[in-house]
């Protein structure tokens, strides 16, 4: 069995070391009841390690009643989910592949690992609460879709608060388009500007970018396609 088994009152046998944190969380919940909230989190180990070095994700309850436990996607999920109240994830660490077929939207081409897909199913079936459900973050993997989201947010600008500004942008399918200069003018894009892959995360070349100072710089540009060209209107910000 992968689960701890109680063999007598007050004594618990732990068959696997991975079960230890689950048992500690369960005991904390039994002792403290609703005064603590157990947050299960999912992310790659290197990212988790950086957080742990800064003292994040403590197993012992914090002053505001939060305690954290890492969810291991390689183990049975149900015993782990049974001790958590909500799930925090970095699902983009678990992207298996992204289909770059330009006939598809990025959201249609994203495939997550089996572990994340199984976690999604359990979250839906068992009515657990997930911070930023996976389906809600998929548009943010698409820089062009993100621009549209930001443009729509401009409508809620309130002069009493910080202003939401969206950069002018242009989606590019080829750097050799004969009317590229005309499209730049229509999009009100002045050089210099920055060119980024449309896919923002989850693939090895998502962060290959280039700054374009003149139109001739588009020739043999190594940025993966499709790409997004953008500049903050009226400023030098990118």
Automatic annotation (TrEMBL):
<dbReference type="InterPro" id="IPR040464">
    <property type="entry name" value="InsP(3)kin_ATP-grasp"/>
</dbReference>
<dbReference type="GO" id="GO:0000287">
    <property type="term" value="F:magnesium ion binding"/>
</dbReference>
<dbReference type="GO" id="GO:0032957">
    <property type="term" value="P:inositol trisphosphate metabolic process"/>
</dbReference>
<keyword id="KW-0808">Transferase</keyword>
<dbReference type="GO" id="GO:0005737">
    <property type="term" value="C:cytoplasm"/>
</dbReference>
<dbReference type="GO" id="GO:0047325">
    <property type="term" value="F:inositol-3,4,5,6-tetrakisphosphate 1-kinase activity"/>
</dbReference>
<keyword id="KW-0067">ATP-binding</keyword>
<keyword id="KW-0547">Nucleotide-binding</keyword>
<dbReference type="GO" id="GO:0052726">
    <property type="term" value="F:inositol-1,3,4-trisphosphate 5-kinase activity"/>
</dbReference>
<dbReference type="InterPro" id="IPR008656">
    <property type="entry name" value="Inositol_tetrakis-P_1-kinase"/>
</dbReference>
<dbReference type="Pfam" id="PF05770">
    <property type="entry name" value="Ins134_P3_kin"/>
</dbReference>
<comment type="similarity">
    <text>Belongs to the ITPK1 family.</text>
</comment>
<keyword id="KW-0479">Metal-binding</keyword>
<protein>
    <recommendedName>
        <fullName>inositol-1,3,4-trisphosphate 5/6-kinase</fullName>
        <ecNumber>2.7.1.159</ecNumber>
    </recommendedName>
</protein>
<dbReference type="GO" id="GO:0005524">
    <property type="term" value="F:ATP binding"/>
</dbReference>
<feature type="domain" description="Inositol 1,3,4-trisphosphate 5/6-kinase ATP-grasp">
    <location>
        <begin position="162"/>
        <end position="230"/>
    </location>
</feature>
<keyword id="KW-0460">Magnesium</keyword>
<comment type="subunit">
    <text>Monomer.</text>
</comment>
<dbReference type="GO" id="GO:0052725">
    <property type="term" value="F:inositol-1,3,4-trisphosphate 6-kinase activity"/>
</dbReference>
<keyword id="KW-0418">Kinase</keyword>
């Amino acid at each position: 069995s992968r689960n701890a088994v109680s063999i007598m009152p007050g004594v618990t046998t732990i068959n696997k070391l991975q079960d230890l944190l689950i048992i500690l969380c369960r005991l904390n919940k039994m002792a403290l009841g609703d005064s603590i909230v157990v947050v299960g989190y999912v992310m790659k180990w290197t990212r988790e390690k950086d957080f742990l070095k800064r003292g994040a994700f403590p197993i012992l309850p914090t002053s505001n009643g939060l305690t954290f436990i890492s969810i291991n996607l390689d183990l049975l999920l149900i015993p782990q989910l049974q001790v958590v109240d909500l799930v925090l994830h970095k699902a983009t660490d678990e992207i298996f592949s992204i289909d770059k077929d330009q006939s598809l939207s990025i959201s249609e081409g994203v495939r997550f690992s089996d572990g994340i897909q199984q976690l999604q199913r359990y979250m839906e079936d068992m009515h657990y609460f997930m911070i930023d459900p996976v389906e809600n973050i998929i548009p943010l993997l698409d820089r062009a879709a993100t621009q549209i989201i930001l443009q729509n947010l401009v409508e809620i600008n309130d002069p009493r608060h910080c202003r939401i500004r969206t950069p002018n942008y242009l989606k590019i399918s080829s750097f050799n388009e004969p009317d590229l200069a005309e499209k730049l003018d229509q999009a009100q894009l002045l050089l210099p500007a920055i060119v980024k892959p449309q896919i923002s995360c989850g693939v090895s070349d998502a962060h290959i970018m280039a700054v374009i100072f003149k139109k001739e710089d588009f020739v043999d540009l190594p940025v993966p396609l499709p790409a997004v060209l953008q500049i903050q209107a009226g400023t030098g910000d990118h």
